[in-house]
Amino acid sequence: MGLSGLDIFKKLPKTNCKECGFPTCLAFAMKLAAGQTSLDECPYVTDEVRAELAEAAAPPIRGVTVGVGDEAFKVGEELVLFRHEKTFFNPAVLGVLVSDDMDDAKVDELLKQAKECEHERVGVMLKVGTIAVKSASGDAGKFKALVEKVKGATAKPLVLMAEDVEVMKAGVEAAGDSRPLLYAATEANVDAMGGLAKEKDLPLAVKAADLDKLAELSEKLTGMGLKDLVLDPAPRKPGETFKDLVAMRRAALNEKFAPFGFPAITFPCEETDDELYETALAAMYVCKYGGIVVLSHAEQWRMYPLLVLVLNVYTDPQRPMAVDSKFYEIGAPDENSPVLVTTNFSLTYFIVSGEIEGSKIPAWLGVVDVDGQSVLTAWAAGKFVPETIAKFINTSGIIDKIKHRKLIIPGYVAQISGELEEELPDWEIVIGTREAADIPAFLRQFSTV
């Protein structure tokens, strides 16, 4: 049984330093007991106390890692039902399904789609995260050959799908040390599949027709010493799948029901033959609450909106996305190139830098640290102000890279130009455009001479 908030409070340093984000140590202890924060947020807790509080500090939903190296991903470790309560931590992973009853051309096409599906958005790489390899034939040789083919074509983590343990063993052998997710332990094979997962120290998916049986299997496997489980309620009916996913999350978070304290895997590809409907189901499962979502194809039209949805859902609403504060070289700027300044809000940076690139005019783009806020928001908050901008300019090293002293500021903060000239007396402050879309035309007629 987990410790109460008062039990935890007695073991904390009681400094009320607020560095954890809470006003008092007692408030932090209460949130920790409720599973709504992490012990890592306290910078002063001792190692001895950390060990004592491990149970209370553990997320109600265990984090499970699949794969190795740079392509590995983790799902789970969520603390809240709704993102606005705190945030979601480990993004849902989108995957594509290949099967040993497909011809080589089909498999090659799906692997090609998964490989080519990479997009950069606000500095984040969006991509297909996993390949699910299914034994539809029940032939261990064919399954092993397909796993070898997929492993040779991609470094993405694998989900090995076979309910026959002997077939699964062939797949595990082919997967080598890539740490695949085994799918799945069922009522019929739980002992053998659990034994294989334990022997190889691999994460294991658990599949059952209803939540009662799923809970029984989960308890049995954890009783065998397995910790890294992924749950599939498996009704294969969208309405029921949705209800089961929500029920599992609520039971794990609100009732601390340990058998459901694991991430979930969903298969919209097995719930419909309609591609548009499948994509809509995938979107629903990203939101509620699929940790891994497996689709039948990875075409750009299907994956891009889903990947952006994942990015939006799993971006911390309390912490704006920000880029590093420094001068960025857009194109190949030289000593006569224009110098512009903006804030470090990711969306602002990528929109402005994109418009500068589109102008074909090389430029220096200075990004001021304003805690990831947009231009107007940062100005209103007293962060994108003359003193801050001047300090950035004077410490950035840009003065040594250019001959002129003209600084272009966003048109929305034209009112600070006079004060900024006082802070930077050697500079001429030029008021730029209000809208980013007008930057190319502005730069084409701008001169640093």
Question: Your description of this structure?
Answer:
This protein has 449 residues and is an alpha/beta fold. The chain has three domains: 5-57, Orthogonal Bundle (3-methyladenine DNA Glycosylase II, Chain A, domain 3); 64-313, Alpha-Beta Barrel (TIM Barrel), CATH 3.20.20.20; 327-445, Rossmann fold (3-Layer(aba) Sandwich). The chain is 39% helix and 16% strand. It contains 17 helices and 17 strands. The protein has helices spanning 5-11, 25-33, 47-52, 54-57, 104-116, 140-153, 165-175, 190-200, 211-223, 238-254, 275-287, 300-313, 346-359, 375-380, 386-396, 417-423, 439-445, and strands at 64-66, 73-75, 93-99, 118-121, 124-127, 130-134, 158-161, 181-185, 204-207, 229-232, 265-266, 292-295, 327-330, 339-343, 363-368, 406-409, 428-431. It has an eight-stranded parallel β-sheet with strand order 10-9-8-7-6-3-12-11. Strands 13-15-14 form a three-stranded mixed β-sheet, with helices on both faces. A two-stranded antiparallel sheet has the order 1-2. Helix 6 links the parallel strand 6 and strand 7 (158-161). Helix 13 (346-359) packs across helix 17 (439-445). The longest helix has 17 residues, at 238-254. The protein is globular, with a radius of gyration of 26 Å.
Main features:
Rossmann fold, 3-methyladenine DNA Glycosylase II, Chain A, domain 3, TIM Barrel, 449 residues, 8-stranded parallel sheet, 3-stranded mixed sheet, single chain, alpha/beta, 3 domains, 17 helices
